[in-house]
Amino acid sequence: MLDIGYALSNRFPDPPQMDYRRADVRTLRHDLFCGDVYLADTESDRELSTAWGWVPVLDFAWALCDIVERLDKDPMGSRASRPQHAELDFTESTDRMLFERRFGWVDIEADWMPVEEAPLAFSFTELRREARDFLHDLLADLTDLHDDLAENPAVWTLQARFPRLS
After folding, report:
1. Which residues contact 48 (CB under 8 A, 6 or more apart)?
2. Domain of 80?
3. What pTM did the predictor assign?
4. Total of domains in the chain
5. Which of 30, 56, 141, 149 has its CB 3.0 to 4.6 Å from that of 20, i.e. a possible disulfide?
6. What is the pLDDT of residues 68-102, one digit of tens each?
7. By the 8 A CB rule, do 83 and 102 touch?
């Protein structure tokens, strides 16, 4: 089972004077809500995590949802035998998370993983559902911290673009 989580950093606090209601997409994605993220396989007790403290957590959630949709471009869907690839790069470093979908499964690995370690593997359906749940749970947490964020049109657009899946 896939678990996606985060921790906000105390080393990189958001500016106290920030008007979250009017923050633009670039600010929301790259300048706020820094911390660390992880993807964990709870059945095998393995995880892929950052430990840098500066990862823009909202950007990670947003990018992960984008990646899942890119991995679903093949008209054959889960019957496609040709691998579909995507990567998530971390802008402040050269590190990347790499995604490969074949049939109904997605392998996830990262540049910082030991070479001999096998990638994490999840069903595509589970990855899509969990990525969207993570995004919505994160936005709920962030709007609890910053009430004005709930009034930001970019957040409304993001929530509409990636609705929760039942």
Report:
1. 38, 39, 40, 97, 108, 109, 110, 113, 120
2. 2-161
3. 0.94
4. 1
5. 149
6. 999 998 877 777 778 999 999 987 788 999 999 99
7. yes
